[in-house]
Design a protein that fits this description.
It is built from 8 helices and 11 strands. It is about 35% helix and about 25% strand. The longest helix is centred in the last third of the chain and has 19 residues, at about 250-270. By secondary structure, it is α/β, with parallel strands linked by helices.
């Protein structure tokens, strides 16, 4: 486990924040994220960990262009972010599946609304359906293509949500506590699903989570955020080989990293 300075990481960055600050409600509002600088390489898997209300989800809004920075700058793929990006896939704690659409139809949704796919969706629907079915199969949902969300378990709904976020082959995947509402066994199962998808497609991933084991298991780099207003307390590179396996989470080195990161969060809360 190695702490690395921000200055060492700016070269070759795909996502770059420089003194980015975000507040809600206009001037005078409480800050959600304060003067945050970070750099993420293309294809890197990053996890953001910190207490509730520390600006983790606000960071995703900045990077995706859903909310502008009050101060500072946000750059993605060499361009300053000035509005919503179409290179992003997103998944949340709640699957947000449309209840009137089947698994297949929910997965296809981004292709119907994100260019350049939307312009050719009708003409190439069969091709897109084949792609969606193949992706659905990779997460173990073959046979449930025609099921509606209410017919799926919570874990199955989240698998569908992951497929939907990846169907248009986004360059960047933003995940806001996607497994937070699931039981521990389902959550760990989906860690492997997500790891496998990332290893195959290699999008740049930013995962927001409260689970330190999840962060260490999945990420290349873990950022610890302070309580509100959020600021970066540390950046830690995870030196575990891939693919990772669940038994690794009980190894002494893994547990040492977990305790070290937990202490950083506790120390930050005391300041």
């Amino acid at each position: 486990m190695e702490d690395v300075s921000f200055e060492e990481c700016h070269r070759g960055s795909f996502v770059k924040l420089e003194d980015a600050t975000i507040a809600y409600g206009g001037t005078g509002s409480a800050l959600a994220l304060s003067e945050t600088s970070m750099s993420i390489r293309k294809g890197e898997f990053v996890a953001i960990v910190g207490p509730s209300g520390c600006g983790k989800s606000s960071l995703l809004k900045l990077v995706s262009g859903l909310h502008p920075a009050q101060k500072g700058s946000v750059t993605v793929a060499g361009r300053k972010v000035g509005g919503p990006l179409n290179i992003c896939g997103m998944a949340f704690q709640n699957s947000t599946l449309l209840p009137w659409r089947t698994t297949l139809e929910n997965v296809l949704l981004p292709l119907e609304i994100v260019e350049p796919h939307a312009a050719r969706f009708r003409q190439q629907r069969t091709l897109y359906e084949d792609l969606a079915r193949a992706l659905i199969a990779t997460v173990g949902l073959s046979g449930f293509e025609d099921a509606y969300p209410w017919q799926l378990s919570g874990g199955m709904q989240q698998r569908t949500s992951l497929c939907r976020s990846l169907i248009h082959s986004p360059e960047m995947l933003l995940l806001d506590e996607p497994f937070g509402a699931l039981d521990p066994f389902t959550r760990e199962e989906l860690w492997d699903v997500l790891q496998d998808l990332w290893l195959k497609k290699r999008p740049t991933v930013i995962l927001v989570t409260h689970d330190l084991r999840e962060a260490i298991y999945l990420a290349d780099t873990v950022y610890i955020f302070s309580p509100r207003p959020g600021r970066i307390l540390s950046r830690t590179e995870i030196d575990l080989p891939r693919p990772r396996q669940l038994q690794h989470t009980y190894a002494p080195h893994f547990m040492e990293m977990t305790h070290a990161l937990r202490e950083q969060i506790v120390s930050g809360a005391r300041k």
